[in-house]
Specification:
With 255 residues, the chain is of the alpha/beta class. The chain is 34% helix and 19% strand. Strand 10 (209-212) and strand 11 (215-218) form a beta hairpin. Helix 3 runs parallel beside helix 4. Bound molecules: flavin mononucleotide and iron/sulfur cluster (2 copies).
Length: 255
C-alpha cells in the first residue's frame, strides 16, 4: 500500500514511480482516506509506503493527523517514507516516527528527494529557475532508482541527505508559527482574467474551493499547497501581493 499526498504533483510523481517500480498498485490519497474515515487493512507481508511533500520542515499537518488517527487492521511488514522538498527536510523523519509511534508502528526507512519549489507566499520565496527545476527533477529520477532497490531489499535506515542545519529551530519553533500565522486562504484573490473553468476547484486536494458565479470561492480549510495558484490557466489567482509576478509551476507528466 502506498499512502500519498501531493499539492502540486511533485510527490504524486514520486508515489506513481514507486507504485510502478514496486508493482504496488494499491495507492491511497490521504485527503480522500481522511474524508471517508477509511481503515487501512494489511495482508500478511504487505508493506506500507508514505509519500508527501515537506511543509515547514516537517510532515504536513493533514498527513500527521491522518497517520495518528487512522484505523489500522493488521500491521505492515515494512514501512518506508519518501518525502519531497524544495531544499531541506529538517526534522521531518523524526516527526514522522513520532506520528507512527502513536499507532505502535515503526518507520523502517526514510528517503528524501529535492523537487522544484512550490511555496512562494512570503517575500524572498520564489520558484526555481527552469534549469534548477529540471536539475532537481532529473536528480530525483536517478535517486529514485537507488531507493527502489533499497525498498525491494527492505533495507532499514535513514537515507535522508537533505536534513540541513538549524533543524530544531526550523522544525520545532518555526513550524507552529508558520501554521498559526501564515497558513490561511483569506489572502487569495482572483482577477478579472478568470474564465470560471473550475480547474482550481477540481485540483484542490482538500476540496476547499467552490465555483460560485463563475469565480472560485475559498472556504477556510486550506493548507496552502498552492495547487490552485499554480494550475490556474489564466494565472488569475494571487495570494495577497506576495505571489504577484512570481510565475507558476506544477509537475507535468511529460517532464
Ligand atoms: C506550505 C508549504 C511549505 C513548504 N515547506 C517547505 C520546507 O520547509 N522545506 C522545503 O525544502 N520545502 C518546502 N516546501 C516545498 C515543497 O516541499 C516542495 O516543493 C514539494 O516537492 C511540493 O510537493 P507537491 O508538488 O507534491 O505538493 C513547502 C511547500 C509548501 C506548499
Ligand atoms: S482555474 Fe483560474 S480561470 Fe479557472 S476558475 Fe479557477 S481562477 Fe478562474
Ligand atoms: S485552496 Fe488552493 S492552496 Fe488551499 S488547499 Fe486548496 S488548492 Fe491548496
Amino acid at each position: 500500500m502506498i499512502l500519498w499526498y501531493s499539492g502540486c504533483g511533485n510527490s504524486r510523481f514520486v508515489a506513481d514511480t514507486l507504485s510502478k517500480e514496486l508493482a504496488d498498485s494499491n495507492m491511497i490519497f490521504i485527503p480522500d482516506a481522511a474524508r471517508q474515515g477509511m481503515a487501512l487493512e494489511f495482508g500478511p507481508d504487505e508493506s506500507l509506503g508514505i509519500v508527501f511533500p515537506v511543509y515547514s520542515w516537517s510532515v504536513p499537518k493533514l498527513v500527521s493527523e491522518f497517520l495518528r488517527t487512522a484505523g489500522f487492521k493488521g500491521k505492515p511488514a515494512y514501512i518506508f517514507a519518501a518525502c519531497t522538498c524544495g531544499d531541506e527536510t529538517g526534522l521531518t523523519e523524526k516527526h514522522l516516527k513520532k506520528d507512527l509511534s502513536k499507532q505502535g508502528l515503526e518507520l523502517d526507512a526514510f528517503f528524501s528527494f529535492q523537487m522544484p519549489e512550490t511555496y512562494i507566499n512570503l517575500p524572498g520565496f520564489k520558484l526555481d529557475t527552469p534549469e534548477n527545476a529540471r536539475r532537481k527533477t532529473e536528480s530525483t529520477k536517478a535517486s529514485l532508482k537507488d531507493a527502489v532497490v533499497l525498498i525491494k531489499e527492505r533495507a532499514k535506515g535513514g537515507f535522508n541527505k537533505l536534513k540541513g542545519g538549524s533543524s530544531f529551530l526550523k522544525s520545532n519553533i518555526l513550524k507552529p508559527l508558520f501554521y498559526g500565522l501564515l497558513i490561511t486562504d483569506r489572502k487569495f484573490r482572483v482577477s478579472d482574467d478568470c474564465i470560471g473553468c473550475g480547474i482550481c476547484a477540481k485540483n484542490c486536494p482538500l476540496r476547499n474551493i467552490t465555483i460560485e458565479n463563475d469565480r472560485p470561492k475559498w472556504n477556510g480549510h486550506c493548507t496552502n499547497c498552492m495547487s490552485c495558484y499554480h494550475r490556474c490557466p489564466r494565472n488569475a489567482i494571487n495570494f495577497g501581493s506576495a505571489t504577484q509576478g512570481k510565475g507558476q509551476y506544477y509537475f507535468k507528466q511529460e517532464e
